[in-house]
Amino acid sequence: MKVILKQDVKHLGYKDDVVTVKNGYGRNFLIPQGVAKLATTSNVKMLEEDLRQRAFKLEKIKKDADELAGKINNLKIDLKTKAGATGKIFGSITTLQVANELKASGYEVDRRNIVFENDIKNVGIYKATLNLHREVSVDIEINVVAE
Question: What whole-number distance in Å separates Cα of residue 36 and Cα of residue 39?
Fold first, then answer.
């Protein structure tokens, strides 16, 4: 079954992508949740026209994401948190904390676009990926230190 995604779906695709999914997944989850619609010929034609009209705007968004990626590339941020004597922190570092630290540094990044390689539960240096656009992502280094 082919469907047109109305919003980004993790591990499936981005908004306005035409993807092939199993019939049950499309009929029982994606379409009732309002995440996708059937890819009929008329819906595909409407999508193509919408994309053609939005091409200029999407190009500008991608250019802005490229500029931000150039500024953020190889950025290193320090996060201070409470930790025990063994270096294990209380709780874990979240994407919200990283987003707030980036905002304090002058970079506006949505917390939902930040992905960690591993859960951050100890003091140390970690990598995070910032997905700024569907074609633009950049890695940053997070140094977690005890207060």
Answer: 9
Q: Are 31 and 3 in contact (CB under 8 A)?
A: yes
Q: What is the pLDDT of residues 109-130, one digit of tens each?
A: 899 999 998 889 999 999 999 9
State the pTM of this model. 0.64
| Cα dihedral 21, 27, 29, 32 in deg (nearest 10) | 130
For 6-117, strand residue ranges (E) read 18-20, 36-38, 76-81, 114-116
Joined together, the tokens standing for residue 63 give 């250019």
Q: Which domains does the chain have, with CATH numbers?
A: 2-61 (3.40.5.10), 69-146 (3.10.430.100)
CA–CA distance, 137 with 129 (Å, rounded to integer): 7
- State the burial class of residue 56 (Cβ atoms within 10 Å of its Cβ: 0-12, 13-18, 19+): exposed
What does the DSSP 8-state code read for residue 141? E
**Residue 39 structure tokens:** 């890819």
Q: Are 144 and 124 in contact (CB under 8 A)?
A: yes
Inter-residue contact 60 to 34 (CB < 8 Å): no
Sign of the CA dihedral 41, 44, 50, 51?
negative
